[in-house]
Amino acid sequence: MAAMRLRHLYRHRNFWEWSCALPVPHVDLFGHKLNKDRNERLASIHITPQDVLLVVDVQNDFCPGGALAVAEGDAVIPAIHRIAPLFQHIILTQDWHNPDHSSFASVHPGKQPFEQINLSYGSQTLWPDHCIQGSKGAEHHPALTLPRAELVLRKGFDREIDSYSAFFENDRTTPTGLGGYLKERNLTRVFIAGLAYDYCVGYSALDARSLGLPAVILRDACRAIDLNGSVAKIEAELAAAGVVIAQTTDLSV
Questions:
Q1: Which one of 3.30.70.1060, 3.40.50.300, 3.40.50.1980, 3.40.50.850 gives the CATH number of domain 47-252?
Q2: Is the pLDDT of residue 225 over 80?
Q3: Is residue 218 within 8 Å of 248, Cβ to Cβ?
Q4: Is 57 one of the annotated active-site residues of the chain?
Q5: Which of 162, 200, 222, 250 does the annotation list as catalytic?
Q6: Catalytic: 131?
Q7: Eight-class DSSP state of 158
Q8: Residue scoring higher pLDDT (240 or 38)
Q9: Exposure pattern of 16-29 as b/e (b: 16+ CB <10 Å)?
């Protein structure tokens, strides 16, 4: 036993000496440039062919005048257009609800929008009717012009369960298929913009991390609802999960 312990320690000692001799990397996991002391991030995040821009729910009903309007929701569009040319891969998501979706306050007698109820998968915020399949409100905002988008992922079409995230429904276990798509296409890092920062954008980033994908939220290309402290709550979760919060001006090729 003593000999085994010595061999074990010797192996670890050799590994430590070897690892200390490795060259200092120039970028971290998310592509941030590092200085020679390893402890200072510089401003640029380098975009690679394995990165994907995920544009979340920039739809009429989430923009000013819509049924569930996010303040300045349409202001994300110029920021998205500025960075889109940096990416070889762009994916759009689209909320796509049944007229009697279980997340609508209108289908629960006596309930009002923004109240909380418990459904089979847990707590659910009730929303005004929005993004109903085939409606004008469900269409992407007419100013959003991303002809190179290779996939439009519709979510929330199951009447019995809501779907904030682009990766999983709100039970956090039923996949949308996006994770498999990214794996098949060898897309290994996700940059997220759109609506709303504290719901569909934030949940998508958390689920990307749960799948082992680096996730970067482009904060100036998002807007929030901020319902009952939802921004502070999601930001605590994002920090714990290792999601990077960046600005569109941080990106480069």
A1: 3.40.50.850
A2: yes
A3: yes
A4: yes
A5: 200
A6: no
A7: S
A8: 240
A9: eeeeeeeeeeeeee
